[in-house]
Request: fold
Amino acid sequence: MFTGIVEEVGAIKNIKRGQHSAVLTIQAKTVLEETRIGDSIAVNGICLTVTRLFPDGFSADVMHETLNRSSLAGLAAGSVVNLERAMPANGRFGGHIVAGHVDGVGHVANIHRDDTAVWYTVHAGPEILRYVVEKGSITIDGISLTVAAVDGEGFSVSTIPHTVAQTNLSQ
Reply:
């Protein structure tokens, strides 16, 4: 389980693509602390298992189902990703309870400023929108957010400057 509070922004160092799979090598620092092979790290909110550790990063296998349901298939070397270690059972919940299992992909249709807030409107299909409720929680690229509005085409979230600065939204 995760909280949706991003610990650091990492970068894709390498992607080794198979016919229907991939191995991601990700540059990281903070999430490596006390991490062992077999541990889970959320990469843009997607729970991946650490298969190799390096002094400056880790590798994780990505299976066909995950590539089909997430935005990981669109990553390239140099892409920035949000990273979060799995939450220990005796830890504080800083955000929402996040499983790290992706239901689908939407696309950002609009971004606008409202004083210090930045609003993101995301369009998504009915297979996603049926689960989205106003004032409910949603995770976008592993960032735990509260849904501010929902309509037939998508939903909107409002972010604070801290969230933008500490995640891949600032990229």
In short: The two ends are 26 Å apart (CA to CA). The helical segments are 64-69, 126-129, 161-165. Residues 8-85 form a domain with the Elongation Factor Tu (Ef-tu); domain 3 fold (CATH 2.40.30.20).
